[in-house]
Structures are given as C-alpha cells and as structure tokens.
Design goal:
CATH class: Mainly Alpha
Oligomer: single chain
Number of domains: 1
Number of strands: 3
CATH topology: Arc Repressor Mutant, subunit A
Order of helices and strands: HEHHEEH
Helix content: 40-55%
Shape: globular
Strand order of the largest sheet: 1-3-2
Number of helices: 4
Distance between the termini: 35 Å
Strand content: 5-15%
CATH superfamily: Winged helix-like DNA-binding domain superfamily/Winged helix DNA-binding domain
Length: 120
Amino acid sequence: MSGPRDPAVFLPLKPDVFAILLVLLEGDAHGYRMIKAAEERTGRRGQLQTGALYRLLRQMLDQDLVREVEAPAAGEHDERRRYYRITPFGREVAEAEAERMAELVSLSRRHQLIKEGEPA
C-alpha cells in the first residue's frame, strides 16, 4: 500500500481483529499463541478459531495491519509456525479503535449506563 492512509476507514474493527492487534502489541506471535493470549485476556475459550484466525491474518496482511516475520532463533520454535508482527499502520488502527471505544465508554457513563468507578 502506498500513500497516507486513514485508520478510521477500518473502524469499527471486528473484535477478533482488535484482539489480534492487542496480542501483537506485546510482541511477535504465531497463531496458536494469539489464540491462547486472547483466551487469557477475555476468559472466553474459543474466541478465536484457527480457521477464522488465519483468514483474518491474510486480510490483515493485505491491509498492512500485520506482517510476517522471521521465526525466533532455532530451537525456540516449531519450523512450521508463521510469526506475525503488528505494523506501524496496524498500531495506528489499534489506537484509533481504542479511542473510539473510550469515547463510547465515556458516553455510556454520561448516560449512567456505566456508573463511575465501575470497570468499563
């Protein structure tokens, strides 16, 4: 992709796409790690399904949200695994989505749908 891009074009993000970006903000990961990390964060098993994950990753590669990277040093990985990294543009999109969600939480509090001090 070339030229400036507007992260807002991707909003709102699908929850699974946002979950993938959040995992990759912590560092490079392979698919199984993304699935496990998403489960740990949400407490919801099966949030990311293997087939759907790899379809989303292909789309995210095409959209320049993530890129494939070299695996870690030998002995630390399974050679069949593919590792992914969030791109600078992917980070911009994740930030835009987080801001969008924060605005929704703020509005929800203003309308007393969420009380002050309650987790969002």
